[in-house]
C-alpha cells in the first residue's frame, strides 16, 4: 500500500482514538502529525481527481474541498461557544481572502517569474473572478458595519439571509461561466505544443483510480476537520500563551486549510501555468466567501447565535489595498517578479498586524 492510502486511514484511526479526549504533550504531537499528513494526502488525491476531470473543473474541485474543511472547522468551533466564537467566521474568511490574494498569488508569481521571467494569463477570466470576489467580500465583510437595523458589525436576520443568497448567487453564476459559458477564459494561455515533455505524456488517471482517490479525499477531509477540532484547545492555549489576539485563531485555521491549494498552485506556476494558479487562488477565495458565508448564516439562524461579520478599520484598509493591488497586477495580463514581491510584502504586513495590531 502506498503512503497516500495509509496516511488517510491512520489519520482516521488517530481521530477515532483521540475524539473527545483532552490532548497534551505527546498526544498533541501525534494529532499534529496526523493532521499535516491528512492535508498532504488530500492535496495528492484532489489533484488526481482534478487531473481526471480536466481544467477548469479540476481547480473547482480543489476549491470546494478546501471550503468544506473551512466550513466544518468554523461550525465546530462556533458550537463550542468559546470566547470570540461569534467573530470566528469573519476572521477565518478574511484571513483566507488575504492569504490567497497576497500569500498564494505572491508566492506563485515569485516562483514562476524566477523561473520563467514573464508570466502570462488570460485577463478575461482573472478579472471576472476578481470583480466577483470584490463584490462578495464587500457584501459580507464591509457592509455590516454600516447597516442600522442592528447595533455593531452585524446583520439583521433578513439582511443576513439576503447577503447569503447574494453571495451564493454570485458564486453560482461565476461557476457557470467558468465551467460552461466561457470555459476558454480560464484555460492556460500556452498551446499544447508549448508544453514540456512531462505535461505532454501525463495521461489522465483511470476512472477506478480517480474514484478511489475521491473516496480517500473524503476520508482526508473528515480527518482534517476532526483532528483540527481535537487540536483546537492546544492552538488556543498557545495563542493565549504568546499574548496574541483571539483573531489569530482564524488566521491559523485559514493557513491550515489553504495548504493543499497553495502547494498545487505553486507547482502549476513553476510549470509556467500561472493561469491554473490564479484559477486556484481566486477561485478558492471566492468559494471561501461565497459558500462559507451562506453556510454559516444558515447555522447562525437555526441555532440563534450571534454572527459578527463586519471588519475593523485596520482590516478594511488591508482589504481595500489588496483589491487595488490585485487589480493592478492582473489588468495587463502579464506579471513579473515585482508584482509577486508586492503581494508577499502585503501578506507579511497582514500576518504581522494580526499578531501585533
From TrEMBL:
Signal peptide region: none
Swiss-Prot/TrEMBL keywords: Membrane, Transmembrane, Transmembrane helix
Segments crossing the lipid bilayer: 30-50, 57-80, 92-114, 126-146, 158-177, 214-235, 247-266, 278-302, 308-330, 337-355
Ranges where the Sodium/calcium exchanger membrane region domain occurs: 26-179, 213-354
Entry-linked InterPro entries: Alkaline_pH_Ca-Antiporter, NaCa_Exmemb
Localization: Membrane
Membrane topology per record: Multi-pass membrane protein
Residue runs in coiled coils: none
UniProt keyword Membrane present: yes
Protein name, entry field: Calcium:proton antiporter
